[in-house]
Structure formats: C-alpha cells, structure tokens
Amino acid sequence: MSNVLEISIVCPLCREPFNSSVPGTRADLGPLHTDFRREVVGFQPRCHLIHTCPFCGYTAMEPDFERQVSRPVARRIIHALRYLVRGDIPLSCQRYEYAARCAELLADSPLKIADLYLSAAWSAEEDQQEDEEMAYREKAIHFLRTALKSPGAVPASDRATTTYLIGELYRRRGETREAEQWLTRVGQEIIDRKGQAWILSLAEQQRKFPRDVIDLPDRPSR
C-alpha cells in the first residue's frame, strides 16, 4: 500500500473542491519526547494530517472540513489567509500555524488552538526550523495558559498534565525560571495520586535531571 492516499475535499468557506493526501499506511512508532512529540520511523505522516485549501487558505484537519462556517467568519479567514497560500506549497509547520489561526477566528477552544501550535512546533523541529519552532512553542504556552484559566476548558483530570506541558515548553525555550515554577505547580493539580503518579514523577525529573525522551507507551491525553 502507498504511504499516502489521495482524497477529494470541498472547502467549507469558498466551496471549491481540491485534492489532498492522507497517510495510507500506519506509522511505526518511535520514542516519545518529553513534550509528548512521538517520533515515527521512516515515513513521516504529520504533514498529511492537515489540509490547506489552495483557493482561500482555510486549513484544518479532515473532520473540520465538514463544519458549517458563517459567511462573516469565512470572509475574515479568507482575508487573513488567501494571500499566504499562493505560490509555493506551505511547509508543514506553516499549515499547522494556519490551522491554528483558523481555529482562533472560529472561536475554537484554547486547548485545540494550543494543540495546533504545538504540532506546528513539532513539525518545525523535524524540519530544523529553530526560530519557527520556538515561536510556535511560545504560542502553545499562551493558549495552554489561557485554557487553564478558562472555566471548564481543561478537565480536572487533565490539569496536571497541562501544567506539566507548560513547564516543559518553557524549559525547551530556555526559560528556566518559568519552567521551574510550572513544573513545581504540577503537584497542586494532582487529583489521583496513583493514576497520576507518572506525571508527578516526570515533572520532578524535568526539574532536576531533564531529558528529551521518556519511556511511556502512548502520548497521554490532556
């Protein structure tokens, strides 16, 4: 089977159809990083999980091409993005950035926007775009912090993991004081000592003896 499959998508903003691609084979999983980026062996599927309309710039994962978008919001997105997608095909990290900007204009949850900026940072890291990687990590931090302050945006069971991730992203940006503050705060968000022992242990490790890779079977959910 091919590594990618071609699909046809209809843009919910401009209603134009276009072709894109999705992973056609399952990736072989590699190490899990301390910012929850999962490496894969060989074929890299991340760039095929996000789709950009070449006519208006709307960018999202495949399910979000089924959503209904009001005309005023559609016009704002088109105005913001359509000139960015003309010419060269955007890099994977840029497409995740565009998706995050679309999600902002659509008033999606701050946690969803943070996830998109984090994916942009991962893609930039994989493409060795260091300046972009750091900028996207900063954006992810902003929206993760916003999510923690927004009532109901982060389930109580996920607040410790989200707090840890903010600290780890600060650490990776070289902002050690902020990293220390947030990693120390993880214990205050624990509601299940046994079930969440892993994140408390990981936060302690990253405070004292930080590593870039951890040994967990799957990326935890937030």
- Uncertain runs: none
Using the CA coordinates, give the radius of gyration: 18 Å
Mean pLDDT: 91
The general outline is: globular
How many DSSP helices? 7
Describe the structure.
It is built from seven helices and seven strands, in the order E-E-E-E-E-E-H-H-H-H-H-H-H-E. With 222 residues, it is α+β, with helices and mostly antiparallel strands. It has a domain at 4-108. The protein is globular. The two termini are 33 Å apart.
Overview in brief:
The chain has seven helices and seven strands.
Strand and helix layout:
Layout: E1 4-10, E2 17-23, E3 28-33, E4 38-41, E5 51-52, E6 59-60, H1 71-81, H2 92-105, H3 110-126, H4 130-149, H5 159-172, H6 176-185, H7 197-208, E7 213-214
Antiparallel strand pairs: 1-2, 3-4, 3-7, 5-6
Helix pairs in contact: 1-2, 2-3, 3-4, 4-5, 5-6, 5-7, 6-7
